[in-house]
Design brief:
By secondary structure, the chain is mainly alpha-helical. It folds into three domains: 13-69, no CATH class; 73-125; 142-172. It is 68% helix and 0% strand. It has eight helices and no strands. It has helices spanning 13-21, 26-32, 37-47, 53-69, 73-97, 100-120, 142-152, 157-172. α5 (73-97) packs antiparallel against α6 (100-120) and α7 (142-152) packs antiparallel against α8. The mean pLDDT is 75.
């Protein structure tokens, strides 16, 4: 019968696992949580399936290097701005040749370009405010509403009587 992992049973297991996954040295973590270093090593290997802290830090470094190789926001912005006139040119040619499908595709490309520019500029739709105007001076009086309701429900005397009663109560208020 196998023994239970003492690190898995530790009250601060989530914190220990987070530190191990971040690549912190096991010896320091073992000291901080009063764990046996070999037990912590077995936990890292068997329970979390993680490599050594050196291997994790190498992966982190590779990730950081990959991120630095990505184009900057300004470089992307410049590339999109340079792309827009080319799309405009394609649309003009499509219009001259009477190819509506190509023109629509070009317009869609411009829309995507502008959407991307807006996101890059921090002007995405998440913060967009929408103003709605509501007309409150509708000139329909209670008498007109009552007349329409009574006329509409003329064939149903019980319902017509209930509506009339409700309108009388509203009028009394």
């Amino acid at each position: 019968m196998t023994r239970k992992c003492s690190t898995c049973q530790h009250i601060k297991r989530a914190e220990i696992d987070r530190r191990l996954a971040a690549g912190e040295p096991g010896s320091q973590i073992a000291r901080d949580y009063e764990l046996n270093p070999s037990s912590l090593h077995r936990h890292r290997t068997n329970c979390l399936n993680l490599g050594s802290s050196n291997a994790i830090m190498k992966e982190v470094s590779r990730g950081t290097a990959a991120i630095t190789c990505l184009p900057s926001k300004d470089e992307l912005n410049s590339a999109y701005l340079a792309l827009q006139p080319r799309i405009d040119e394609i649309i003009s040619q499509a219009k001259q040749q009477g190819s509506l499908a190509v023109a629509l595709s070009g317009l869609n490309s411009i829309r995507h370009t502008l959407d991307s520019l807006a996101r890059l500029g921090g002007h995405d739709r998440a913060g967009t405010q929408v103003n709605v105007a509501v007309q409150t001076n509708v000139n329909v009086g209670l008498a007109q509403i009552a007349e329409r309701l009574i006329k509409h429900f003329d064939q149903e005397p019980e319902l017509k009587a209930r509506i009339a009663q409700a309108l009388v109560e509203i009028d009394d208020e």
